[in-house]
Amino acid sequence: MQIFLLKISLKQLFFIDLIINLCNLRRLFKNNIAHKILGSIRFYEREEIKDVISLLRLFVNKKDKVSFLRIINKPARGLGKTTIDKIIATLNDTDVNLDLMLASRKVVKNLKGKARDSLDIFLSLYDELKENIQKGVYVNLSEFIKDVTMGFGIWNYYQKFDKDEKSKNIDELISSGVEYSGSFEGLVIFLENSSLSPLVHGDFASSVLLSSIHGVKGLEFDRVIISGLEKGLLPAEIEELTADRLEEERRLFYVAITRAKFELFITINLQRFFRGILKNTAISVFFQEIHKDNYDIVFVPEYLKDNFKFFFTRSDNKNLNIGDYIIYNGENGIIVDKWYQDGGPFLKISLKNGKKAILSSSYIKKLSKM
Fold it and tell me: Where's the UvrD-like helicase C-terminal domain (predicted)?
């Protein structure tokens, strides 16, 4: 096994991407590397991504009926079919200068109660964000996409609906905007590129395959790359990991590493864009479980070597793991999460008195039972 932190040759490799990272896809396109995405649903075909793209398209084309009908009442804004039909009918009037926003303003004057308030809020937010993107107030397009998804309630809607996947996909779309200018022109280019995301790019016979771990169960490949062995990706971001849930995540990691017949590469990012903001990450607890004799460090930048010192200079003598009972400051508790950062292990504990804490393992004593 090899741990690799920078650029590697991707030819004739299988790529397990823990979140089907759009940044990885863009790099494949940029370097003209043939690739294929495994799985039944492409990223831009997902419901939540289509919703965000539809909102963004309205800022470019205010007469886009398909996009308007998709998002005008999602999440629910109290606008019934009759109201929406009136907006479309108004747009279809003989006045060629009308667009969906102007038509909505005509209709809203005759509405009452929640429907009027909701449509007023929608139109006011649209005007505000439209002005911002035209003035170029954003550093990059990621900031604009974040304002759109948060302001119109799409992110919160999917966070409640399926917080483990759909909202993370939206976060990934937000982060993908960091490479585009925060201007109207940047938005146009972004939307053009999003519509040019084929399932297969280049020569299929020699292409790199991309998939989630679930998508490759039962398959094997000569060489495999696992992208992002980090806390929050593997194991997944969960408020309080139980020993059983951690074991499920560990089995998933086992599926990933056993897809490789000859060579396995694992990448770890110590910084990652999250909703367009560059944040520090933490090394997955699963990395510590791999004995150092079983892998080679291919490359670690000099300024990052301290982050990996723990894995080569000392061992975790306490062997504290998720689900273990502990005592801290005289209070009994349980370990609910574990990761590695700044050269050593950190633990999240939940105490019987209801308090929670994140601290180094040196402050905790392990108990056989509680």
Answer: 1-218
Ranges under pLDDT 50 in the chain: 1-14, 17-20, 22, 40, 198-204, 314-317
Class of domain 43-194: mainly alpha
pLDDT digits (tens, 9 = 90+) for 43-57: 777 888 899 999 999
260-267 vs 221-227, strand pairing mode: parallel
State the Cα angle at 210 between 173 and 206, rounded to 5°. Answer: 135
Query: What CATH number belongs to 2-34+201-311?
Result: 3.40.50.300
Distances (CA, A) of 129 to 57, 119, 120, 132, 336: 13, 15, 14, 5, 41
Upper half-sphere CA count for residue 91 (Cβ side, 13 Å):
17
Taking only the tens place, the pLDDT of each residue in 180-203 is: 889 999 999 888 877 655 444 444
Task: Supply 196's token pair.
Answer: 């040019």
